[in-house]
Amino acid sequence: MTLKRREVSMSDELPLLFWRDSPSDRKYQLSGNLIDESSHREWFRKRITIKDANPFWAYEQNDMTIGFFRAEINKVSPKEFQVSILVSPNYRGKGLGYEILADAIESMRHLFPKHALLATIHRENIPSLTMFLRAGFLLQSTVINDFLQFRLTL
Ligand SMILES: CC(C)(COP(=O)(O)OP(=O)(O)OC[C@H]1O[C@@H](n2cnc3c(N)ncnc32)[C@H](O)[C@@H]1OP(=O)(O)O)[C@@H](O)C(=O)NCCC(=O)NCCS
Questions:
Q1: Ligand 1 atom 35 nearest Cα
Q2: Partner residues linked to 65 by β-bridges
Q3: pLDDT averaged over the chain?
Q4: pLDDT tens digits along 140-150
Q5: What's 35-74 look like in SS3?
Q6: For ligand 1, atom 5, which residue shows the shortest CA distance?
Q7: How far is the centre of ligand 1, averaged over its atoms, from the C-alpha of 131 (Å)?
Q8: 63 in the Ramachandran plot: left (φ > 0), alpha (ψ -120 to 50) or beta?
Q9: Which residues line ligand 1 (CB under 6 A)?
């Protein structure tokens, strides 16, 4: 399976909102609130302007967008990025999440050598835990309640 990586564009605004807002996914989000379209639009339009320093990539398979990778630089500790991955609900469980993560790690290593990636994951989010551990992330600590923090040094 060949995945194509590209920069996020305005056409990704709505898929991102719909995929993120499914009730099963919200349970695993640190901020699990339903996001309304106008707040999402405002966030997305600001977010897209800082994507050079804070990578935000879409992944395509056969010209269909199937997932996203996002990295936010830690303002207090600028050698660290908080990362997250989202796969289209229709394409889950096929190995794509892991493929995206593996590609994103390699690209981040190239762009930001010696930086670290942090992922905050709900303890019941088994696909996500499996994926990040398989990619070499190590458990660091419990952040709050049911969320665990993992880290990978590039
Ligand atoms: C987490 C997420 C990105 C995983 O993507 P995916 O394409 O479904 O994952 P994969 O198919 O690559 O599977 C990753 C691993 O989890 C396992 N897995 C997948 N679905 C599973 C399920 N329902 N139950 C148990 N294990 C599962 C796979 O077997 C695989 O393990 P392996 O490498 O040992 O075979 C996707 O579920 C998603 O977008 N979730 C919503 C957002 C989210 O929670 N993001 C993570 C926090 S940043």
A1: 95
A2: 60
A3: 92
A4: 987 778 899 99
A5: CCHHHHHHHHHHHHCCCCCCCEEEEEECCEEEEEEEEEEC
A6: 97
A7: 6
A8: left
A9: 25, 28, 84-87, 92-98, 119, 121, 125-128, 130-131, 134
Task: Tell me how far apart the alpha carbons of residues 99 and 115 are, in angstroms, rounded to a whole number.
Answer: 21
pLDDT at 19: 85
Output the CA–CA distances (angstroms, integers) from residue 95 to 31, 66, 98, 99, in the order listed.
26, 12, 6, 6
Both tokens assigned to 144? 């709050």
Residue nearest to atom 36 of ligand 1 (CA): 87
152 within 8 A of 113, measured Cβ to Cβ: no
Q: What's the pLDDT at 27?
A: 74
What is the CATH code for 4-153?
3.40.630.30
Q: Is the pTM of the predicted complex or chain greater than 0.90?
A: yes
Residue 21: band (very low, low, confident or very high) from pLDDT cuts 50, 70, 90:
confident
Q: Where are the domains of the chain?
A: 4-153
